[in-house]
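Hey,
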Amino acid sequence: MTMVETPERRQLRELTRAFVTREVLPHLDDWERAGEVPRSLHATAAKIGLLGVGFGESVGGSGGDLLDSIIVTEEIIRSGGSSGLVAALFTHGIALPHILAACGVPSDSASGPQHLIDRYVRPTLAGTTIGALAVTEPDGGSDVAGIRTRARRDGDHYVVNGSKTYITSGIRADFVTTAVSTGNGLTLLVIDKGTPGFTVGRRLEKLGWHCSDTAELSFVDVRVPVANRVGEEHTGFLAIMQHFAAERLSLATQAYATAQRCVELATRWCRDRSTFGRPLASRQLVRHRLAEMHTRAEAARAYVHVVATRVAAGEPVVTEVAMAKNVAVAACAEVVDAALQLHGGFGYLRDAEVERHYRDARILGIGGGTTEIMNEIIAKGMGL
């Protein structure tokens, strides 16, 4: 199975490219320096229907599925945006699905506990609020089962104590879907910013993804209404695992799309740049290097599309998702390095778009489960 390119999806690509050209490119460098994207960008993306792609109209989204979300991610980066922009603008892609699934639906119905949908999902998809997902802890890394942030039941509330780190959009988020230990398992709670005892710590400075704010979070005797529980108690671990596929495929998409963009940038540079009286592209060594880069990027894209199509069809392809992420990340790492090298000294300057992609690409083999974790999943899929 491969991704079907329908007229609607071609229009979605055109809409995304126009959005990036008009609303992003004139400001992206400023956002990189500021360390975040403005809240107004969420509202603008929502108004034209981009923010809600992949979420049903009945819950405030724009419709479409995982494959449509992949198209938006791909086009944002290939139009000159960045994976950091995707992380900042579409954090709700990891903050909301757990809520919708726990309401007894995927993302195409409004049945279930309406207060969670009405209070968190609809305003986020409308671009008026921002949500984040808080799982990772300072000493936990990828060990989801070892979460130490605890929630103790006290009547109609949970009392939460603990800390989280590396939280994407944690500075700007109005609420955080938070994984906590409830004794016999993990539970997800939606915690509002401003709740007494909930502190947003320092802004974390990073190698890349500069326009995507990242924070440490602290919870000291934070009282969270039981009504803000996502699903039943002790179902959080399974919920997190079930939604890893979409997150990992998004990162895989960011990886191959970054590689494709860097191939385009390097090709353009090598056609325009001359050394010793000849364009770089006239040299066989350079042409062959570009051909290899193009092949790696296109092969990764093709495989990610195949796996994403299977996931969208409901197939349990955990191993294949892990392989898709690793294939795309490896292709991206090789291509962005080669692209920067071909740009020479200019590629090392902040003025060069390829420099930003070089920095941003490094997180893709870490986020959503490291390359090593993916290899362990693959090995288990092989029966090892």
